[in-house]
Amino acid sequence: MNATVPGTDQITIRKCAGMEELEACVALQKEVWNFDDVDLVPLRMFVVSQKIGGQTIGAFQGDELVGFAFSIPGSRAGHAYLHSHMLAVRDSFRNQGLGRRLKLAQREDAIQQGFELLEWTFDPLEIKNAHLNLSRLGAIARRYSVNHYGHSSSPLQGGLPTDRLVAEWWLKSRRVVDLLEKKQPPQFKVEKKIEVPAQIYAWKSSPDDRQKAAEVQKRNREQFLSAFSQGLVALGYERDTQDNGAFLLGRWDEDWSYAAKDEE
Ligand SMILES: CC(C)(COP(=O)(O)OP(=O)(O)OC[C@H]1O[C@@H](n2cnc3c(N)ncnc32)[C@H](O)[C@@H]1OP(=O)(O)O)[C@@H](O)C(=O)NCCC(=O)NCCS
Question: What are the start-end ranges of the H helices in 134-246?
Fold first, then answer.
């Protein structure tokens, strides 16, 4: 816990309102990802999102924005859902539950609007995000997108292809409701593990070691594509005491899906 940061219960989570708060989101986006300007989601997109049923939810310390979650509406096989494009928390406010609180606020608002599904993509090499998404929120992943965005200017990507897993957060599924109410990860039979070494962050950020990160990405990409083609689903995530991570794959016993049958 960072001593300079007050308890996160003093931080308010609420929808952003007015141009200044949306401008603060653009600035925080720049700070968190350090994108080139050409890769930034511009102010106008935040404005559009608010007007078409999307979400821009902020975490505020007083008037200062210290985190936000941003989503836009989408549609698949005739069903409306929300695609969450960004979740960001200022560095000095991380690991105190704000990311999770922002996601829970997204869920509450989405349910109020009548949505069942919130989706987003995440880098399968990001151990922290995988833990948050699968173990703490109860999202699942069963789709893998190779080089999803093409090249990214963000140093977080370390120059690697932008491979992404699609997180599906079925807001009213038994899995999610049980996890949020009982605070216990749902049980399932683990049929496969896909491992990510703790050193991945150091390897991505060092030009000398980047090849090692690229090898992990290539190995895991093949494993995910093969496992998903056999109907396995990433349902859990475990970390060991050295902060190595592993996706836990098994069969999901619920049938939430908006995919056309031939896409599954
Ligand atoms: C992803 C992000 C929004 C999370 O925000 P946050 O406020 O730190 O999230 P939380 O505190 O709610 O949850 C983080 C969890 O990861 C865990 N964690 C932290 N470092 C970790 C690591 N190296 N390995 C594994 N888990 C880690 C924390 O312990 C916490 O889990 P817990 O609640 O079980 O203790 C924030 O890290 C961020 O802005 N990252 C950069 C942008 C990004 O990657 N956005 C997401 C993709 S769009």
Answer: 174-182, 200-205, 210-229
